[in-house]
C-alpha cells in the first residue's frame, strides 16, 4: 500500500500501532532504514526516520534505540523543529521507563509535556498522557492513571479533527478505553472493565484496526475469566488467537494460547488446556521469552496435577519456579510454591510440602498477595491434619478463614464501590445530556427569534407562518426531551433495583460467613478444653463430632435456603421442575454454584474433600445431561 513518506515516518515516531503500520514495518529491515536515513538531508523527514528506528529497536536493543532518539533530538534542535524536540524527549522518557528508571522517566515526561505545549503539538500531549496513565497503573497509582486517561478522552471528545500532518486525522480514543478497562480489571471492577474494553473493541472495528481488535478481544477474555464465565472467555480468546495467527504476531499468540489453556483447565478439560500450554511453550522458546515460557511451564504443571500425574507435574512446576525466580516475579513464585506444596501433600511428603508453603507465606505477606496467602494456609492445615497434628491444623485453618474473611470483605467493598462508580458515571452522562438538550433548546429559540425578525420584515403573514413552524419545532423538541428524561429515570430506577439486589446478595454471604465464624469459635473452645482433658482420646472424638454436627446441621441449611431463595426466587422449584431426579445434596451444590463459589469453598462448606466435590459435579453433570463442551457453572447461573 502506498503512503506519504512524511506521514509514515511521523506515524512510526509516535508509535501508532495500526495494522497498516505493522504490515509496512514487517517489510522494512532495520538496515534498509539506516541506509536510507544516512543519505537524507537534515530535515524533518530524517528526524522521523530516527524516531522510526527508536520504535523498532526499543525492546530488542534499547541502548541502540536510545542513540537514534539522541540523534533525532540533536537534529531537531539544529533545524529548529520544536515538535521533534518534544517527541524525542517523550521517547527518552519511554527509554528510561523500559530500563526501570522511573524517576528519570517522570522527569522526561514532564519536560516533553512542556515542550509539546510550546510546540502546539496536541498529538504528543495525547501520547504523553497515555504513557503516564500506563506508568501510574503499573505503579498501582490508579487514581492518577485514571486522571490522565480521562483527560485524553475529553480532548478526543471535544476535538472533531486532530491534525497529525497536513493531510489526515488522528484519533486513538479506543486505546484510552482499553487501558481504562485494564485498570478496572486490577481494581476488581469487572463490569466497568468489560464496558470500557467493549468500547475499545467497537472503536477498533469501526477503524478496521484488526490487530488492536485482537488486543481488546484478549482483554475481554481475561475479564470473563475473572468473572468465571469461562466459555465466553474461551470464545473471546480464540478470536484474538486467530487474528494474532493471521498477522504472524507470535508473541501475543502465545499469550492468547496461555489464557485459553487456563480457561479450559478451569472447565475441567486438562487435555485441551495442555495442548494450548505446549504451543505457548514452543513459541516462547523460539522467541526467547522467559516470561511466557515460565507461565506455560507452570500451567502445564497444573494440568498434570489435575490429572494426578504427579511426577510430570513436579517436573514442569519446578522448571517454571526456577524461571520465575530468575525473573523475580514474586506473586508467581508464591503461587507456584503453593502448587508444589499441594503436590507434595498428595505424594505424602509432608515436610517437603511445609517447606514450600512456608516460603510461599513469607512471599505472599511481603507483597500483600492475600489469595496466595489464604491458599498456603489451607494447604498447611491439610498437611498438619494428615500428620495428625490437629492443633496446628486448626491454627492454620483459622488463619485461612481470617484471610478469606478479609478477601470477602474486600470483594464486597469493591462491588459496592463499582456500583457507586457506575451510578456516578451515569449521573454525569445524564447531566451532560441535559446540558446538551438545554443548549439545543436555546439554539432553537434563538433560531425562532431570528426567523420572527426576518418574517416581520417580509410581511405579517409570512411571520405568523414561520413562528408557527418554530413553535411546532419547540413542542416536538420538548416532547422528545420529556421522553428522554423518562427513559433516563427508568434506567436509574433499574440501577437502584440492581443495587438493592446486590445488597441482598451481600447479606446472604455475610450471614453464611457469620455462621462459619460461630462454628470456628465453638471448635476453638473445644480445642482449649482438649488441652486440659485427662481422657484425650474421648476429647478428640467429641471435637470431631462437634465439627461434623455444626457442618452438617440441617437447621443451618434451612436458614441458608430461606435467605438464598429471597435473592434467587423460586430457584429450587425451577431446578426440581427441570431436573426432577436432583437430590437434596445436589440441590445444595447447585445453590453454592449459583453463588459463584469456588470448588474449594464449596468443599469447605459441605464438609467433603476436593475429590468428593469432583465426583459430585460429575454426577450432577450426568443428571443434567450436559455435554463435555457445556459449562456446569454457566448452566446453573442461567437457571
TrEMBL record:
Annotated localization: Cytoplasm
SUPFAM superfamilies registered for this protein in UniProt: C-terminal effector domain of the bipartite response regulators, TPR-like
Main location: cytoplasm
Chain coiled-coil ranges: 480-533
Protein name per the record: Tetratricopeptide repeat protein
Keyword Transmembrane helix in record: yes
TM helices/strands, residue ranges: 454-474
GO terms assigned for molecular function: DNA binding
Species, as recorded: Arenibacter algicola
Amino acid at each position: 500500500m502506498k503512503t506519504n513518506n512524511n506521514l509514515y515516518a511521523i506515524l512510526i515516531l509516535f508509535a501508532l500501532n495500526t495494522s497498516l503500520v505493522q504490515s509496512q514495518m514487517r517489510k522494512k529491515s532495520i538496515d534498509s532504514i539506516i541506509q536510507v536515513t544516512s543519505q537524507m538531508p537534515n530535515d524533518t523527514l530524517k528526524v522521523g526516520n530516527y524516531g522510526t528506528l527508536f520504535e523498532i529497536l526499543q525492546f530488542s536493543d534499547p541502548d541502540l534505540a536510545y542513540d537514534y532518539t539522541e540523534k533525532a533530538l540533536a537534529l531537531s534542535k539544529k533545524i529548529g523543529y520544536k515538535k521533534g524536540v518534544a517527541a524525542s524527549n517523550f521517547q527518552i522518557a519511554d527509554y528510561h521507563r523500559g530500563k526501570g528508571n522511573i524517576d528519570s522517566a517522570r522527569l522526561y515526561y514532564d519536560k516533553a509535556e512542556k515542550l509539546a505545549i510550546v510546540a502546539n503539538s496536541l498529538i504528543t500531549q495525547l501520547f504523553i498522557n497515555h504513557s503516564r496513565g500506563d506508568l501510574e497503573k503499573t505503579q498501582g497509582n490508579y487514581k492518577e492513571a485514571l486522571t490522565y486517561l480521562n483527560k485524553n478522552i475529553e480532548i478526543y471528545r471535544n476535538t472533531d479533527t486532530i491534525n497529525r500532518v497536513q493531510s489526515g486525522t488522528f484519533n486513538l480514543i479506543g486505546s484510552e478505553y482499553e487501558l481504562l478497562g485494564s485498570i478496572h480489571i486490577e481494581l476488581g471492577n469487572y463490569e466497568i472493565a468489560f464496558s470500557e474494553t467493549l468500547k475499545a473493541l467497537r472503536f477498533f472495528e469501526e477503524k478496521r484496526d484488526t490487530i488492536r481488535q485482537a488486543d481488546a478481544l484478549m482483554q475481554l477474555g481475561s475479564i470473563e475469566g475473572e468473572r468465571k464465565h469461562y466459555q465466553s472467555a474461551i470464545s473471546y480468546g480464540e478470536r484474538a488467537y486467530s487474528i494474532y495467527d493471521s498477522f504472524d504476531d507470535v508473541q501475543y499468540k502465545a499469550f492468547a494460547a496461555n489464557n485459553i489453556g487456563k480457561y479450559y483447565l478451569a472447565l475441567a478439560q486438562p487435555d485441551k488446556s495442555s495442548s494450548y500450554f505446549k504451543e505457548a511453550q514452543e513459541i516462547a522458546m523460539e522467541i526467547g521469552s522467559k516470561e511466557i515460557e515460565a507461565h506455560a511451564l507452570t500451567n502445564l504443571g497444573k494440568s498434570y496435577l489435575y490429572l494426578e500425574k504427579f511426577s510430570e507435574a513436579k517436573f514442569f512446576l519446578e522448571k517454571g519456579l526456577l524461571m520465575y525466580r530468575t525473573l523475580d516475579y514474586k506473586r508467581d513464585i508464591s503461587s507456584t510454591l503453593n502448587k508444589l506444596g499441594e503436590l507434595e501433600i498428595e505424594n505424602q511428603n509432608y515436610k517437603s510440602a511445609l517447606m514450600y508453603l512456608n516460603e510461599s507465606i513469607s512471599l505472599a505477606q511481603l507483597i500483600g498477595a492475600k489469595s496466595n496467602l489464604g491458599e498456603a494456609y489451607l494447604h498447611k492445615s491439610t498437611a498438619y491434619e494428615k500428620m495428625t497434628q490437629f492443633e496446628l491444623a486448626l491454627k492454620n485453618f483459622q488463619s485461612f478463614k481470617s484471610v478469606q474473611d478479609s478477601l470477602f470483605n474486600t470483594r464486597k467493598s469493591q462491588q459496592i464501590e463499582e456500583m457507586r462508580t457506575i451510578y456516578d458515571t451515569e449521573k454525569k452522562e445524564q447531566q451532560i445530556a441535559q446540558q446538551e438538550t438545554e443548549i439545543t433548546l436555546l439554539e432553537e429559540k434563538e433560531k425562532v427569534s431570528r426567523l420572527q425578525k426576518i418574517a416581520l420584515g417580509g410581511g405579517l403573514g409570512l411571520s405568523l407562518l414561520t413562528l408557527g413552524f418554530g413553535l411546532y419545532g419547540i413542542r416536538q423538541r420538548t416532547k422528545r426531551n420529556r421522553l428522554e428524561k423518562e427513559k433516563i429515570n427508568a434506567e436509574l430506577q433499574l440501577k437502584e433495583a440492581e443495587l438493592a439486589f446486590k445488597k441482598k446478595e451481600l447479606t446472604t454471604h455475610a450471614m453464611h460467613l457469620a455462621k462459619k465464624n460461630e462454628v470456628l469459635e465453638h471448635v476453638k473452645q473445644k480445642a482449649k478444653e482438649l488441652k486440659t482433658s485427662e481422657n484425650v482420646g474421648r476429647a478428640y472424638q467429641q471435637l470431631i463430632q462437634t465439627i461434623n454436627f455444626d457442618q452438617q446441621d440441617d437447621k443451618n441449611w434451612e436458614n441458608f435456603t430461606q435467605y438464598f431463595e429471597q435473592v434467587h426466587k423460586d430457584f429450587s422449584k425451577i431446578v426440581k421442575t427441570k431436573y426432577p431426579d436432583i437430590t437434596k445434596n445436589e440441590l445444595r451444590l447447585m445453590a453454592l454454584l449459583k453463588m459463584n463459589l469456588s470448588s474449594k469453598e464449596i468443599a469447605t462448606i459441605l464438609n467433603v474433600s476436593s475429590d468428593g466435590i469432583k465426583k459430585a459435579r460429575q454426577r450432577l453433570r450426568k443428571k443434567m445431561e450436559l455435554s463435555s463442551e457445556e459449562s456446569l457453572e454457566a448452566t446453573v447461573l442461567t437457571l
